[in-house]
Amino acid sequence: MIMLYIQPLRKYLALTAIPFFLISCGSNYKLVKSNRTEYKMNGERAVDSTLIKTYLPYKIKMEQEMNTVIGHSEVLMTKNDKVPENLLRNFFSDALFHEVLKYDPGVDFAMPSTNGGLRVDIPKGEVKMSNIFEVMPFENEMMVFTLGPSDVQNLLNFIARTGGQPVAGLRMKIVNDRPTEVMINGKPYDPTRNYKILTSDYVAEGGDNVQSFKKPIERKILGIRMRDALITYIKENQAAGKTINPKLDGRITKD
Amino acid sequence: MEELLKINRRNFLKTGGMAAAAVALNLNAFDAIAAGDLVKLTILHTNDVHSRIEPFPMDGSKHQGLGGTARRSALINAIREKEKNVLLFDAGDIFQGTPYFNKYGGELEIKLMSEMKYDAATMGNHDFDNGLEGFYKQLPHANFPILCSNYDFSNTILNKSTLPYQVFKKQGIKIGVFGIGIKLKGLVGDRNYGETQFLDPIETANKTANLLKNDLKCDLVICLSHLGYRYDSNRDSDQVLARNTRNIDLIIGGHTHTFMDQPEDIQNLDGKITTINQVGFAGINLGRLDYYFERYKGKRIKTAAPYTISDQLDS
C-alpha cells in the first residue's frame, strides 16, 4: 500500500537529485602520496600523567584484590616438569575436572592443560588471587571433546611419550614411553569406544603439539575460563572450611 | 609476490601522476599545504590492545617494558599538536588479557580510549568475552563509534549500538571508515554472541566500500578489520579481502597479532592499491600512515593515477 505512494516520489527524488549531484559532484581531491611509519612504545617515551590519573584508582583497587586471600593450601605445589606426576598438576586437573562435571556430568577424564601451561608454583599457606593469575595467566577456556578410539589412543600416547601431563580421572603406567594399564574413571580403558574429555581451547588447537583434538566427534564450548573455574573451586573449598591438600596418588608412574 | 609488488611500486612512481607526485615530493610541500593545495591526513592506529593498560611487567618475558596507554597518549597528543588532521582507530580485541578486564569488564579500556580521543573502533572476537551484555554495558564510556558492517545485531541487545560505517571530514577530505569482523562460530562461545548474524565479510566489505567511495564520495576508504592478516588455508583474511574487493584504500588489521616490517600494498580487483597494516598487539606499537591529497582545479581526472608510497615520513 505504502509502496504506491513511494514509487512516484522516487521518480521525483531522482529528478531533483541530478542538479544537486552536479553541484556537489563529489571530491575535488586526489590522493598523491602516502608515507608510513610505526612507533615503538618503549621506556624512552614520555608519559601522559593525566591518563595515569585516570587509571591509578583502578590499579590500586585491582592490586588490593590480587592480594586477597581466596584459600589455603596445606602444601607447596612445585612446578616440576621432570616427573610423571606432581602436586601442582594433580591439584589443577582435579579442580577443573570437579568443575566441569557441574556442566557436563558425562566427562570421562581431563587433561585441562599441558605441563607448559602451568606457569609457577602455588605456595603453602595463603593462596592469593595473584597466585592463581600467575599460575594461569592465559585466557584459555574449558572445552569438552568427544573423541573416537584412535584419537583417544593418540592422546594417551602423547601423555606417555612426554612422560606425564596434568590429568584427572585417568591412570596409567608408562613403560618404554608407551601407556599401559590405563584406567579411565575407575574402569579399564576400552580401546574400542569413544571418550568425553575435558581440555582447553589451547590444547585442542594443537598447542604444545597435541594433535588428538583436531577431528573430534563432538566439540563443546562451555564459555568458562580455566582460571575462573579454578578460582571458583578454591573459593568454594574455603567457604566450606576446607583447605587444599593435593596428594600424589600414583595416577601416572614411569618405569 | 614480493617482486611483483616492487615492480608495481616502481610503476606507480613512473606513471603515477607525475605532476601530482612532483607537488607532493616537492621540498616546498609546506607551501603547498599552507596554500591549501595539498591536504595532509594522518591516520594513527592500534589493534589487539587486550587490556594492556600498563607496559608489560619487567619479568624477562619477550615484550617486557613495552606498551602502555600513558606513553601512547603522550605520543598521540604530540602528533595532534603538530598535525592538523589526525584520525585514530582501533581494529578490535580491546578486551581481555590482563586482570583489569577480569575485574572491571572493559570499563577502563574504553574510558582510556575515549580520553585518548579514538575516532572509531571495530569489535574483535574477545570483545564478546563477557557476552553481548558485557560489551553493551561498557558503551556508555565510549565517546567514539563502534563500527561493524558484517555483524547484524538487530535481534540482540546491541541493536542500534553500533554503526556499519562512519564518514569523517577533515579539511574538505572525506574519509569513509567501516568495520569487518571475524566469523564468530567456533571462535566465540555460542552464548556470548547469541543471535548475532554473521554476514560474509568480503561481500559486505565490497558493498560498504562501494557505498562509501562511489555514493558518498569519500576520498579515502578505510576498513577496520579483525579478520587476521593471512592464513595458510584460504580462510577470509585481510589479504583475501584486499585482493577480492574494490574501493578500499587501507585495511587496518588485527586478530593475528602480526608485527609487519612495513605495510603491505596489494593490487585490488580494480588494479589499485589496497594497503594492509597491523601493528602487533598489546599497544606495543602505534601505526601511522600519512596521506597527502592534492586539490585539483577544473575537471576531475577520470582515471585515477596511482600514488607514491614511502615507508618514511617527510621530515
From TrEMBL, chain A:
Q: Which GO terms describe its molecular function?
A: 5'-nucleotidase activity; UDP-sugar diphosphatase activity
Please report the stretch or stretches of sequence annotated as the 5'-Nucleotidase C-terminal domain.
69-214
Give the matching InterPro entries: 5'-Nucleotdase_C, 5'-Nucleotdase_C_sf, 5_nucleotidase/apyrase
GO terms of biological process kind: nucleotide catabolic process
Pfam families documented for this protein: 5_nucleotid_C (PF02872)
Q: Cellular component per GO?
A: outer membrane-bounded periplasmic space
Name the UniProt record assigns to this protein: 5'-nucleotidase, C-terminal domain
Provide the species name: Pedobacter caeni
TrEMBL record, chain B:
Q: Which residues form the signal peptide?
A: 1-34
Please give the organism.
Pedobacter caeni
* Single GO term (MF): hydrolase activity, acting on ester bonds
Q: Where is the Calcineurin-like phosphoesterase domain?
A: 41-258
Q: So what family is this one in?
A: Belongs to the 5'-nucleotidase family.
Indicate whether Signal appears among the record's keywords.
Answer: yes
- Signal as UniProt keyword: yes
Q: Which Gene3D superfamilies match?
A: 3.60.21.10
This chain belongs to the protein called 5'-nucleotidase
Quote the InterPro entries the UniProt record gives. 5'-Nucleotdase_CS, 5_nucleotidase/apyrase, Calcineurin-like_PHP, Metallo-depent_PP-like, TAT_signal, TAT_signal_bac_arc
Alphabetical keyword list:
Hydrolase, Nucleotide-binding, Signal
Q: Which GO terms describe its biological process?
A: nucleotide catabolic process
